[in-house]
Amino acid sequence: MYKTDGLNGLEKALAQLGKQAGFAALTGALRDASRPIIKSTRAAAPRKTGNLRRGIIAEVFKGKGKRENVATLHIGFSIKRKNSAFYGSFLEKGVKSHRIPGSKSGRGRNKRDNKAKVSFGGKVYSNVMHPGIRAKPMLLPGFEAGYKQSIPIFVKRLRERIILQAIKKYGKGS
């Protein structure tokens, strides 16, 4: 987690805008600043179908803090989109070898009703050992490559968005 210091003037301006306008300015600036990180993260991602690269997204959430205008930027894998990249976290962290259970020792409440079978190489198996997946980190290397470009973008865009929100709220003459 990185925090930006030395933005006291912008922080006061956000507070003067109020909750909604201040939060709109902050979230817009965070989204703009996330673009270099997303670009470098997507470049570090393995490419087969392109779903993984497209699935790396930025989301801004209302953060918890003492002040009104606090937001959290999350850059990670989309699981809600049509072509989701749910497997991105498996590739990022890796997976230990594990057993895929048969019908009588399945997951959930109805273990006996679980008729899951796995087909591989033309044969059907009821119990399979998955070999695991070696970690292929892309989020941290992508962040390391792109965050230095993001900080000046964040400061610039935040100033611009504060001005725009102030014009919307108070008009040009104020």
What's the layout of helices and strands?
Elements: H1 8-17, H2 19-44, H3 51-54, E1 56-62, E2 71-77, H4 88-93, E3 98-100, E4 118-120, E5 123-125, E6 128-130, H5 139-170
Antiparallel strand pairs: 1-2, 3-6, 4-5
Helix pairs in contact: 1-2, 1-5, 2-5
For the sheet with most strands, the description reads: 2 strands, antiparallel
Radius of gyration: 23 Å
Strand content: 5-15%
SS elements, strand count:
6
Order of helices and strands: HHHEEHEEEEH
Kindly describe this structure.
There is one protein chain. With 174 residues, the chain is of the alpha+beta class. Helix 1 packs across helix 2 and helix 1 packs across helix 5. It starts with 7 loop residues before the first helix and ends with a helix. Helices cover 45% and strands 15% of the residues. The strands form 3 sheets. It has a two-stranded antiparallel ribbon. Strands 3-6 form a two-stranded antiparallel sheet. Strands 4-5 form a two-stranded antiparallel sheet. It is elongated, with a radius of gyration of 23 Å. A hairpin with a 2-residue loop joins strand 4 and strand 5. It folds into 2 domains: 122 residues, no CATH class; 37 residues, no CATH class.
